[in-house]
């Protein structure tokens, strides 16, 4: 399992559109993907679960990826979170 702590830079937080973009990319990988924030961990492939976390701009959260393509998944999802949601 790979794990990365990320600070969300998207000004509007991880709301509907960014959550949809994240989940769409996450679903292209076979690995299990989870997002943890403030003691809650949810499936990173579910738009509704991501939105439930309510992660605001500037918040730190953990991205966990486990599976055959975990390294590629982590790299692409991190890139999206850091630079692709603007």
TrEMBL record:
GO cellular component, alphabetical, reads:
cytoplasm
GO terms, biological process: phosphoenolpyruvate-dependent sugar phosphotransferase system
The signal sequence is none
Please report the stretch or stretches of sequence annotated as the HPr domain: 1-86
- Could you list this entry's UniProt keywords, alphabetically sorted: Cytoplasm, Phosphotransferase system, Sugar transport, Transport
Top-level taxon in the UniProt lineage = Bacteria
Pfam families linked to this entry: PTS-HPr
Q: Where in the cell is it found?
A: Cytoplasm
Q: Which InterPro entries match?
A: HPr (IPR050399), HPr-like (IPR000032), HPr-like_sf (IPR035895), PTS_HPr_His_P_site (IPR001020), PTS_HPr_Ser_P_site (IPR002114)
* Cited PROSITE patterns: PTS_HPR_DOM (PS51350), PTS_HPR_HIS (PS00369), PTS_HPR_SER (PS00589)
In UniProt terms, what function does this protein have? General (non sugar-specific) component of the phosphoenolpyruvate-dependent sugar phosphotransferase system (sugar PTS). This major carbohydrate active-transport system catalyzes the phosphorylation of incoming sugar substrates concomitantly with their translocation across the cell membrane. The phosphoryl group from phosphoenolpyruvate (PEP) is transferred to the phosphoryl carrier protein HPr by enzyme I. Phospho-HPr then transfers it to the PTS EIIA domain.
Q: What is this protein called?
A: Phosphocarrier protein HPr
Q: What is the lineage of its organism?
A: Bacteria, Bacillati, Bacillota, Clostridia, Halanaerobiales
């Amino acid at each position: 399992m790979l794990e990365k702590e990320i600070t969300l830079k998207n000004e509007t937080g991880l709301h509907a559109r960014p959550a949809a973009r994240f989940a769409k990319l996450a679903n292209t990988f076979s690995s299990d993907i989870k997002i943890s924030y403030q003691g809650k961990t949810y499936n990173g492939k579910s738009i509704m679960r991501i939105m439930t976390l309510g992660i605001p701009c500037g918040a730190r959260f953990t991205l966990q990826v486990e599976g055959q393509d975990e390294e590629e998944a982590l790299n692409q999802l991190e890139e999206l979170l850091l630079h692709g949601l603007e």
